[in-house]
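Fold this sequence, please.
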Amino acid sequence: MSGKLARSLLKEFEKYTSEVHFKKITGVSGRVLKLDGNENLFLNYKFINRIIRDSLSEIEANLYTDTLCQDLREALARHFHLPAEYVMVGNGADGVIDAIVKTFLEPGVSAVVVEPTYSIYKFFIKIMGAIYKPVLLEDNFSLVPEKIINACDEATKLIFMCSPNNPTGNQFQYEQVVSLLENSNNILVLDEAYAEFGNYSLIPALRKYSNLIILKTMSKAYGLASLRAGYCLANPEIIEELLKVSPPYPVNIVAQKIIPKILTQVNLILNAVNKIRKQRSRMFKQLNDINGVEAYPSDANFILFRIIDRKLTGNKVHESLLKKGVVVRNRGSLPKLENCLRVTVCPALEGEIFIEALKECMSDEL
């Protein structure tokens, strides 16, 4: 009965779930190494947990917070030296993306998306009944701004771009992103979830471009993935429109109390980011030293690699790793990513376990 009453376009949808339920996997040693979520595995969590415990004592769980999470907006604004009017928060970056498409998209309107990329953009665009227009990166995952501009037409309102890009890992050239802003009348939604691991951020240029929305998250560099807190930075006129569709109380009180304290721990975050960068270089070399594997340079906290041995497939290697209790993300179904897997940069000990498991999978299948 309920299926007949649901919107007709939902017939082509499946519920959004993670690829693997890691708790159902049992490795050879009984341990599961979860390297599929691009999480920060380098933070000092004893210190983080102390902040969490201290924050919990401040919470009155029986009371509502303010509807717009104003204290959190102001804390983020101070962090980036912006007025609070430039900030909107949401239930993870996904919640902010949802608000963006609800604000600007409807049937007959289109959004251009740089592919291959984070699949949630397509998910939300199609839920709105809008036209999804993918523009593929080059074979080396480089960006051609002219292709994106040419894909836009009178029906286009949004351009989605992730930089550093998930899952390819590369950060697009600063000048190329700026050229899109300066040569397009559309709003550029620039997802900078991984920018802390890259070479630049466009946040300092935010006041200059009224057609720029920068997406950010507390899940990656700040290591607070389970708290589900994201935000965007944009011209106040855009923020005002987004707030019209944002649900009240978009971020839970626990996250609201913890995040302002974490934002003050700049050295803690930078230390973890620097460790990730060093280990990323090490894992990149280790992957490329394995016969039949090609790893791609990364500016994020993960590495994309391709199985290039013709006797193997990415699916087979993925399954073999699962049997050994190592969970990576299979990205082979995305355009240009045939036989590609993605692994989270992890500490040296876990990295050695992963590399040895991958070597065994490659040799076992030969």
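The radius of gyration is 21 Å. Residues 2-45+267-365 form a domain with the Aspartate Aminotransferase, domain 1 fold (CATH 3.90.1150.10).
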